[in-house]
């Protein structure tokens, strides 16, 4: 998988004249590069631990009183899946790498594109607020049965968050951020990422938690203008406790 790449700003060109003084070094810019859909699918196990119905029934039925709609067989993503539009398209972004970190939510491809279609997976989702411009306010959970090695592969599709994205300038003003920290109560592989950026006159907060057990990988998301951390973590804990009943 393509990782964070460092693109040097100065190239040696044939035919250049010799410099009589030390050249001014060009700045080094980090570039987030999308990757194509996976072309190979690992062979699934002869027998799965759970059925899709067991997974979907273990997921929460509601979020703060709002019923959650159920989906089945959500991995791999549909063949017509497209990447997200650039929510920072009208701004000059610094560091520029953070534009695509936000746009692709840290995943430069399609999450779970390598998962065999026979693999049990399920999701629940609900709208928690009106659509503003093109950003939806939604809460969702997805779970897919995967052994540890493939679970790690799914987790690793989300690249490490560049530390410089903790403070993102839009047209020279700090108005966006991406930060990541561990949540030990969800295991050593847990990834908790918070992205913030303006949408119209408001600021959207995208919270995501991804973790794995020895049998499945869970992704919890909440994208909303009103998105307190306590509510998100309470929902994540409810999700975790429900899935534990599968064991």
Structural commentary:
The chain has a domain at about 75-245: Protein Transport Mog1p, Chain A. The protein has helices at about 50-60, 95-105, 150-155, 230-245; strands spanning about 5, 30, 60-65, 65, 70, 95, 120-130, 135-145, 170, 175-180, 190-200, 200-210, 215-225. Mean pLDDT is about 85; it is low at about 1-30. About 15% of the residues lie in helices and about 30% in strands. It is α+β, with helices and mostly antiparallel strands and about 250 residues long. It is built from 4 helices and 13 strands. The protein is globular, with a radius of gyration of 20 Å. The chain has a 9-stranded antiparallel beta sheet with strand order 5-7-8-13-12-11-10-9-6, sandwiched between helices. A two-stranded antiparallel sheet has the order 1-2. Keywords: Signal. It comes from Kribbella soli. This is DUF5642 domain-containing protein.
Task: Give a short summary of the structure.
Residues 1-21 form the signal peptide. This protein has a domain at 75-245: Protein Transport Mog1p, Chain A.
List the helices and strands and how they pair.
Layout: E1 5-7, E2 29-31, H1 52-58, E3 62-63, E4 66-67, E5 69-72, E6 93-94, H2 97-103, E7 121-132, E8 135-145, H3 148-156, E9 168-170, E10 173-181, E11 191-199, E12 202-212, E13 216-224, H4 229-244
Structural features:
alpha+beta; Protein Transport Mog1p, Chain A; DUF5642 domain-containing protein; signal; 247 residues; 4 helices
